[in-house]
Write a structure and sequence with these properties.
heterodimer; A: mainly beta; 7-stranded mixed sheet; 4-stranded antiparallel sheet; 11 strands; 0% helix; 48% strand; globular; B: mainly beta; 6-stranded mixed sheet; 52% strand
């Protein structure tokens, strides 16, 4: 596609519920990133994929968070047993190559509210 | 570890005037890139401008320019001829060998008519 697509745009989950957030990157983009943005703050890194390989998951806040990109294109971020502190915007970004100088294209994010 | 600090939570400017947003950073890497991103209410992060640490010349993109002071680890964004559409959150970000972007806390810019 022309841009990075994320769905759903909004998600309300009851505490304890599992959620799955989808990211469809730009076709052919090798690198894919997930970020978490709490209200009024800057995004914080969660995890990074190069093709289907998850090369860095150091930012995942707990073992309730899990991300996958099985075929090297679409990625899913799953949060199990959601807690109120998980409420945030989850941003996905993709990049053509794996290099620090390449610009990233971001999606519009999924706003997760845990009630 | 790398850090990015934006000391101005909010700024305002009159339409057509010039405004400067501040950013300082810390990294132990010698090769890195610095970015300014704009985030309007639509939430999508839009790349405004980027600067490679090895380049001494300050980057410029139309009305947007940076003042990169490597020794001081400072990377400010100047917006000239401000327009109403520039109203947004602005984030400074650092990218070094770890591939990931480290963002500052953001500056909310309001352009007033």
């Amino acid at each position: 596609g022309a841009g990075v697509s994320q769905s759903p745009r909004y998600k309300v989950a009851k505490r304890g519920q599992d959620v799955a957030l989808r990211c469809d990157p730009i076709s052919g983009h090798v690198s894919l990133f997930w970020y978490q943005q709490a209200l009024g703050q800057g995004p914080e890194f969660l995890t990074y994929f190069q093709n289907e390989a998850q090369l860095d998951k150091s930012g995942l806040p707990s073992d309730r968070f899990f991300a996958e990109r099985p075929e090297g294109s679409v990625s899913t971020l799953k949060i199990q047993r959601t807690q109120q502190e998980d409420s945030a915007v989850y941003l996905c970004a993709s990049s053509l190559n794996a290099g620090i100088d390449y610009g990233y294209t971001f999606g519009s994010g999924t706003r997760l509210t845990v009630v | 570890a790398q850090t990015v600090t934006q000391s101005q939570p909010e700024m305002s400017v009159q339409e057509a005037e010039t405004v400067t947003l501040s950013c300082t950073y810390d990294t132990s890497e010698s090769n890195y890139y610095l970015f300014w991103y704009k985030q309007p209410p639509s939430r999508q992060m839009i790349l405004v401008i980027r600067q490679e640490a090895y380049k001494q010349q300050n980057a410029t993109e139309n009305r947007f320019s940076v003042n990169f002071q490597k020794a001081a680890k400072s990377f400010s964004l100047k917006i000239s001829d401000s327009q109403l559409g520039d109203t947004a959150m602005y984030f400074c970000a650092l990218n070094n060998a770890g591939n990931m972007l480290t963002f500052g806390g953001g500056t909310r810019l309001m352009v007033k008519p």
